[in-house]
Design a protein that fits this description.
The structure is a single chain. With 399 residues, the protein is an alpha/beta fold. The chain folds into 2 domains: 250 residues, Aspartate Aminotransferase, domain 2 (3-Layer(aba) Sandwich); 127 residues, Aspartate Aminotransferase, domain 1, CATH 3.90.1150. It has a 7-stranded mixed β-sheet, with helices on both faces. Strand 4 and strand 5 form a beta hairpin. Helix 3 crosses helix 4, helix 3 crosses helix 7 and helix 5 runs parallel beside helix 6. It is globular.
Length: 399
């Protein structure tokens, strides 16, 4: 009778939400019970409180709670009257919702490549697209090949680091474009001047999917904005375009955030900066452990731009032999993820845009060599060092 082989010396899941919940469970339960006692489940006081708090947190005048991060993007596009015949400049290296919502409005995503060190949208690539592929027609910027009107730029603050916005904002002003920030992964992230994600453009869009730094108990999201008229328009769009009730001057959608989700988020918001600080601490532990291990020929750790406040929704490394390393780590009990294995311009559903492999080489390279490691706040130093040791063992054995 053969003996079972021993399991991993230590297990390090990609994410474990249970330790976080244990620390806040009494407050969350009390908040949920208060909502149940009130029997106000739709756009009640918890939603209004959350909207005000997150607007202030993001240095914005207004908050609009919505049903998901995806619906936040969709609502922003609808609020800015973007639809058929229009185009939005964005990145091909992001979660599907970024370009998916553009397409859902009937507009066309215009992809530009990313900066290799931060994975965020490249301002020089945007400038080149505008200069080389667009022209002015009757005061409107038009994409020559498709004939679409270019209406907006949608940068993504990927992995928790703010995309440098000043060059993009300058391009938007020059071209007369609106700016929608996909800040789904970046609540609390700031640039070197201290400006938070979501505060730069016309609309900032957040996701509170459970895996985010600020996660709900299901789907939830929020838009922030500075303009009162735009905010009011988005609030009406959020409830099917009806104002007053049952009177519809235009068509909206059902984008309301649940009162129960808002109650959970109001509790969690009190801890957000502490949790993000622990993620930053864990990132430093990783950085120092990788440096000591001498893995520079095999592993490139995340680059934090000078003065920027990176909140590490993900800790993403570039590695050689990525897929083999991932398999090795799984065998050692270490959870990982690939964000994102197929850039959007090569997704089957966007084949009609006419893109081919090689069109956006930096996005394509990132899709082949990036790997996200566990970074959640409750990880121990022992677990973090174990991950680095297992990676070092893989490359040591490969020498």
């Amino acid at each position: 009778m053969s003996e079972k082989s021993p399991g991993p010396a230590l297990r390090v899941p990609l994410l474990d939400l249970k330790p976080q919940y244990e620390t806040i469970a009494p407050r969350v339960r009390a908040a949920l019970e208060a909502v149940c006692a009130s029997q106000q489940f739709i756009l009640g006081p918890e939603v209004r409180t959350l909207e005000a708090r997150l607007a202030a947190y993001s240095q914005s005048r207004y908050g609009i709670g919505v049903s998901s991060g995806t619906d936040a993007l969709l609502l922003a596009l609808m609020g800015l009257d973007i639809g058929p015949g229009d185009a939005v400049i964005t990145t091909p290296y992001t979660f599907f919702a970024t370009a998916g919502t553009i397409a859902r409005t009937g507009a066309r995503p215009l992809f530009c490549d990313i900066e290799p060190e931060t994975f965020n949208l490249s301002a020089p690539a945007v400038r080149a697209l505008i200069a080389q592929q667009c022209e002015r027609r009757g005061g409107q910027l038009v994409h020559r090949a498709s004939g679409t009107r270019v209406k907006a730029i949608m940068p993504v603050h990927l992995y928790g680091q703010v995309c440098p916005m000043e060059p993009l904002l300058a391009l938007a002003r020059e071209a007369g474009l609106r700016v929608i920030e996909d800040a789904a992964q970046a609540i609390g992230a700031r640039d070197a001047a201290g400006r938070p994600a979501g505060s730069f453009g016309d609309v900032g869009c957040f996701s509170f999917f459970p895996t985010k730094n600020l996660g709900a108990f299901g789907d939830a999201g929020l838009c922030v904005a500075q303009d009162e008229a735009l905010t009011e328009h988005m609030r009406v769009l959020r409830v099917h375009g009806g104002k007053p009730k049952y009177h519809h001057a235009f068509i909206g959608g059902n984008f309301r955030i649940d009162e129960l989700q808002a109650a959970v988020l109001n509790v969690k918001l009190d801890f957000l900066d502490e949790w993000s600080g622990r993620r930053q601490h864990n990132a430093r532990v990783y950085d120092e452990a990788f440096a000591r291990a001498g893995l520079g020929d095999h592993v490139v750790t995340p680059r934090v731009l000078p003065g920027f406040h990176h909140i590490f929704n993900q800790y993403v490394i570039r590695v050689k032999r990525r897929d083999a390393l991932r398999e090795h780590l799984a065998g050692a009990g270490v959870g990982t993820e690939i964000y994102y294995p197929i850039p959007l311009h090569l997704q089957e559903c966007f084949a009609d845009l006419g893109h081919h492999a090689g069109d956006f080489p930096e996005a394509e390279r990132a899709a082949l060599d990036t790997l996200a490691l566990p970074i959640y706040p409750e990880l121990s130093g022992e677990q973090l060092r174990y991950v680095v040791e297992r990676i070092g063992g893989f490359y040591g054995a490969a020498r």
